[in-house]
Amino acid sequence: MKKQISKLHYITTGPELAEKACRGGIDWIQLRVKDIPYHDYRAVAREVQSVCTAFNCTFIINDNVALALELEADGVHIGKEDMPPATARALLQENFIIGATANTWEDILALSRQPIDYIGLGPYRFTSTKKKLSPVLGAEGYAAIFTQLEAMAIPVPPVVGIGGITEADMAVLAATGLHGVAVSGSISAAPLVPEKAGAFRTLSEQYF
Questions:
Q1: CA-based torsion, 13, 173, 96, 198: positive or negative
Q2: Which of 34, 57, 155, 204 is 20 to 30 A from 44, alpha carbon to alpha carbon?
């Protein structure tokens, strides 16, 4: 059975951070590792998957549909330069979660017609964890997109905000219409990762 889309996604690069975040209450982990060979990505993914299994946490692999299929992950997140969502859905079973990246209103409109389960929309603000950064949206950008969607009565899957999000942003972002948020650096760079993850979890439950 396909899992529900969490209100709080944590994007990480390895098992140690994944375990600390899970101990803080994170229930959705996306593994994003760039520019490494497939077998190395697979080795890291297996370790993170073991952590997710131990904590009953949803496990999403970034970009690599083949690896998600091989490991029987819960799902895959597809970037704009990766495999088309329809192709990924044809390869993956119906119970796989498929997420896709959007940066603009036009992206959202195109993805509304694709067989996906959620959209990652950003960046909210500048973030150093992304190499090719699109223009920042800000809260105003998110709100404008949701206003357009409502005016045109266009149904879309849950939309998750991403890009430099901090604890102080949670209430503002919840008011825009987002389903939830994806966080990376704010948790990974914290001196106490479990505590920071727990703080985000509390805020996500309070506002979203």
A1: positive
A2: 204
Bridge-based pairing of strands 58-62 and 118-121 is: unpaired
Look at the pTM and tell me if it is higher than 0.85: yes
What number of CA atoms fall less than 13 Å from residue 110's CA on the CB side?
13
Domain map of the chain by residue range?
Answer: 8-207
Q: Which two tokens stand for residue 151?
A: 């005016």
Give me the residues of the chain with pLDDT under 70, please: 128-133
Q: Nearest-CA neighbor of 149 among 120, 179, 183, 106? A: 106
Question: What's the pLDDT score for residue 104?
Answer: 95
E strand map for 132-184: 159-162, 180-183
With contact defined as beta carbons under 8 Å apart, do 200 and 167 qualify?
A: yes
Fold observed for domain 8-207: TIM Barrel (3.20.20)
pLDDT digits (tens, 9 = 90+) for 163-186: 999 999 999 999 999 999 999 999
